[in-house]
Amino acid sequence: AVSGEVILEDPQHGFAESAAEFLTGLHLQHFEHWLLRWLYVLGGLLGCACIATGFIFFVEKRRQQHARAGSQGSRIVDAFAVATVTGMVIAALAMLAVNRLLPADMTGKGDVEKWVFWGSWLLTFVHAAVRSAPVARALHNPAWREQSFVIALLAVLAVVANWISTGDHLLQTLFVAPYWPVAGVDLSLLATTAIALYSGLKLPSALPRQQTSNGRPAYECYPFSAGSRPAGIARHGLAGTVITGALEAGTARHSRSGFRASAPRRMAGTAGLRYLLSAG
After folding, report:
1. Which helix (H) or strand (E) element contains residue 217?
2. Which of 105, 182, 226, 239 is the most buried (most CB within 10 A)?
C-alpha cells in the first residue's frame, strides 16, 4: 500500500555544487526574461569588441616599426587578426546558411556543418595572409574590407535560405503569425549585413602613398611640428585634443633630444592616425 513515507531523499547540495548549478544555469541561459537575455547578447558583443580592438591596436602600434625594419611579423599578426574578427563571423554565417540549405534528414548533416565552419575559417586566414602584402609597407590589409562584404553577403544568404527552406520570412514571423525567435534571428542577420556593408565602405583598401626622391614610399599624412594642429584632428573635440597633445609632446621631445629622422619616416608614424581622423 502507498503510505507516503519518504524512501529516498537527495542530500543537500554543498557550496561547490550550488555554485556549479548556478553558473551552469547562467551560462546556458536557464531563464526566460527577454531583457536579461538581450543584456547577455550585449555583453557578448562587448567582449568581442575588446578582442577585436586589442588585435587592431597591437598591429597598428607595430606596423610602422616592422615596415621600417623590413620585418614580416606584422603581416602574420594582421592575418590572424582578420581571421579572428571577420573570419569567425564568416565561418559562423557559412555554417548557418549550410544548415538551412541541406535537407533536415540528411545523414551526417552535423558533420558537414562542422567541416564547413572550420573550412571557412581556415580559408579566411589564408585569404588574409595572401592579401597582407601591403601591411609590410605599413599599409592597410584589404582583406578587412573584402571580408566585410563577404559577411554582408552570407548574412543575407542565411535569411533567404531560411525563407526558402521553412517559409518563415519576416512578413510571416512579424505580422501574419508572429514568431519572435525566428524574426529576431533574421533581423539580427540583416543588422549584421548593414554593419558589414558600412564597415566595408568605410575601410580603406590601402593608405595613399607618395614617392620620395630616392624611390622609397613616403606615407601621406599631415606634417606638423610642436604647436601646430592638423585640421583632421581639430575636428574631433576632446579626443582630437588629447591625441594632438600627445603628438606635439612627442615632437618636442624628439627635437630636444636631437632626434633627426628622414621626412618620410618622421611622417609615417601618423599616417594611419591622419587617415582615420580626416576620413571621419
Report:
1. strand 217-219
2. 182
